[in-house]
Amino acid sequence: QVQLVESGGGLVQPGGSLRLSCAASGFTVYNAAMSWVRQAPGKGLEWVSGIGSGGMTNYLDSVKGRFTISRDNAKNLLYLQMNSLKPEDTAVYFCAKDWWTVRRLLGQGTQVTVSS
User: Is residue 95 a contact partner of residue 43, using CB atoms and an 8 Å limit?
Assistant: First the structure.
């Protein structure tokens, strides 16, 4: 069964850091196109970052230089390191497989709140 489970969200002050994790089962993240997407309160889903099977990474302009996507092939985990967090980063963050296709799969999400 293909499944994604996110963790690592929480409440952090502006300027702080969080690392999100996504545990994948039923497939290997090494061979998949993986992404992080988010949904801010009252808004639609927004793609944040992606990593391809070849290791190439891409980022939403507003998070470039602050967020880093990576994966641990041995543990079959996807990560999103988020630094210099801003209040506008507040959202539910989802791990996604094949985000840009009709076969997209999302996890249940983890809440990130950036507030003083």
Answer: no
